[in-house]
Write a structure and sequence with these properties.
The protein has about 575 residues and is of the alpha/beta class. It is built from 20 helices and 17 strands.
């Protein structure tokens, strides 16, 4: 009896201690969950977490190209850039009423995509998303490995649960706006600080290793979802038939024994106007053209865009630079369609990536392979596009108006040293890699200028090829580059910057015309134009004018020259 009376209070005391401990733990949990968190801090922590846990595959790809020991600064910069981009994106997406759902979705997406990227090397571009949507239940279950579930729970569900329990601190509207503005400015500043010291290395990285960028997570999945949605909307907007242009076009009748027209239009690649010897450049980069008579080099010409994909369709469209829409260009007729409809023999020969849709409805010949191009070494040369030229001109039973377009590889960067045969290496030393950051600026420029000398050789060959046709045809050669190129000025390389902020080096292009006195072009009009401001907008009306085609759509538009019909 006495023993029982002694132990009962002890048990009660132990229960009280346990209860107190439980209450303490519960209190701590409540304090944690009820804690108010500033949204800016929460976003920053989540972004740091995702950079560290969701981008293992990305950094593996980067380190395989840039060993850490030799590229410490660049790797640190790239990490900072990834953080800055994700921080900027999350700041734009997250506002207090929707911040928690957005962050939770991002964590789950990152955990899922990160697993498949690390385990299988999967890249979640728009094509992969379509493939995922079409995967049936059996296929999906076959991918559900235990490691996937563990990763999803630990790296996705657990932090998502924690965020769901947190309380986001309420701020006044004014303070929220100021805080958002500061964080946005800081994220942009981080991006700039990371980019500027390694501009040359990023230029090579972004151009040469596009696939590596696709491993960023969750940036790539988010971008792919947005692109998939916009592509779907664009497809809904797409007309059932091509949008016709110049529907009133007609050939102007000519009087007397008039020769048929023959124009070779060379679409140049990545050549800037201020590196052309004919325009006063300190180097004689075009010695052969300089010795040719009847050469007219325009001194103040600007491009429509700063990339091939944008500029080439714009060059031949009926829109000018101000109202051109690259997203609708593919279902709008261009000037080549009009010429073709009016009976001009139009042939596009390509030694570049493609015509970007411009030549989809005319004859196209691909010269990027040795099977077709007879002049190939480390790559197929532009000069090969002149092979069997006679067959192009005289394929019809009788001479007819002919437009031959030659799309060059030209000065496509960053591997300028590959753009010309060895015998054209006039300027040395040359940067012998596409990693421009490993070379000094002068060696980069040397390779670039050597490539222009090869274009000089090519254009001179075009002229010599045309000369034998002068007696039977009204001949002319037009050369215009699609855009320019930055060569390290202000630590900027290559091209493709938004037009509004792009330097002149990316927008000012050479326009060179060979016009012998035997043709119908008023060479006085050419001489008067070479110092005037001109642009890609002049191309469509010039082509129509040369081939004696009139339409109200370009009736008042300026041309590079006037013709005497």
């Amino acid at each position: 009896m006495s023993k029982h009376l002694v132990t009962e209070p002890a048990v009660a005391e132990n229960n009280d201690i346990s209860l107190a401990k439980n209450n303490t733990v519960t209190t701590k949990k409540r304090k944690f969950y009820n804690r108010e968190v500033n949204l800016a801090y929460l976003i920053t922590v989540v972004v740091l977490y995702l950079v560290a846990t969701a981008n293992i595959g990305f950094f593996k790809q980067v380190l395989a190209i840039y060993p850490f020991a030799d590229n410490i600064g660049f790797i640190i910069s790239l990490t900072g850039l990834l953080f800055g981009l994700m921080w900027l994106l999350f700041q734009l997406l997250c506002y207090r009423p929707i911040a928690k759902p957005v962050l939770i979705i991002m964590l789950i997406i990152a955990a899922i995509c990160g697993y498949f990227t690390d385990a299988y090397g999967t890249i979640f571009d728009s094509g992969m998303l379509v493939n995922s949507l079409q995967t049936d239940q059996a296929e999906a279950m076959g991918l559900m490995a235990p490691s996937f579930v563990i990763r999803l729970l630990l790296l996705g569900a657990l932090p998502a649960f924690i965020i769901s329990k947190l309380r986001i601190k309420r701020l006044s509207i004014g303070r929220s706006i100021v805080q958002k503005a500061i964080t946005l400015i800081m994220s942009i500043a981080i991006i700039a600080v990371c980019l500027l010291p390694f501009g040359d290395q990023y230029a090579s990285f972004f151009r040469q290793h596009k696939m590596v960028r696709s491993y960023t997570n969750p940036i790539t999945p988010i971008y792919s979802v947005i692109k998939l949605a916009t592509d779907y909307v664009d497809e809904l907007r797409r007309p059932d038939t091509m949008i016709a242009h110049a529907v009133d076009a007609k050939r102007t009748s000519t009087v007397g024994n008039v020769k048929p027209k023959l124009m070779v239009f060379v679409v140049g690649e990545t050549v800037r106007a201020d590196h052309i010897g004919l325009n006063g450049y300190k180097r004689d980069t075009m010695p052969l053209l300089a010795s040719q008579p009847d050469i007219y080099s325009f001194k103040n010409a600007t491009s429509c865009g700063t990339s091939t994909a944008y500029s080439v369709p714009c060059m031949f469209s009926y829109s000018n630079r101000e109202n051109y829409d690259v997203d609708t260009a593919e279902y709008n007729e261009n000037v080549l369609d009009t010429l073709n409809k009016q009976g001009v023999n139009v042939i596009w020969r390509d030694n570049n990536s493609s015509s970007k849709g411009v030549a989809d409805r005319v004859t196209v010949e691909d010269y990027k392979t040795p099977e077709v191009n007879p002049n190939c070494d480390v790559e197929c040369r532009d000069i090969g596009m002149l092979n069997d030229f006679d067959k192009l001109v005289k394929k019809a039973a009788k001479p007819q108006d002919t437009l031959i377009l030659l799309h060059q590889m030209g000065n496509h960067g960053p591997a300028y040293y590959k753009r010309y045969p060895k015998e054209f290496e006039e300027y040395k030393p040359v940067c012998m890699t596409n990693e421009l950051s490993k070379c000094d600026d002068q060696s980069v420029i040397n390779g670039y200028d050597n490539a222009i000398r090869y274009t000089d050789y090519f254009l001179n060959a075009v002229i010599d090829t045309l000369k034998p046709y002068e007696q039977d045809y009204d001949v002319v050669m037009v050369y215009i580059s699609d855009h320019g190129e930055s060569l390290g000025e202000n630590n900027v390389y290559l091209h493709g910057l938004p037009y509004g902020i792009a330097p002149n080096a990316q927008k000012q292009v050479p326009v060179i015309i060979w016009s012998p006195s035997s043709n119908s072009i008023d060479n006085n009009s050419l001489s008067s134009m070479i110092k005037q401001p001109v642009s890609h907008d002049f191309i469509t009306p010039t082509l129509l004018s040369f081939f004696n085609i009139t339409t109200k759509e370009v009736a008042s538009e300026p041309t590079f020259f006037q013709t005497t019909h």
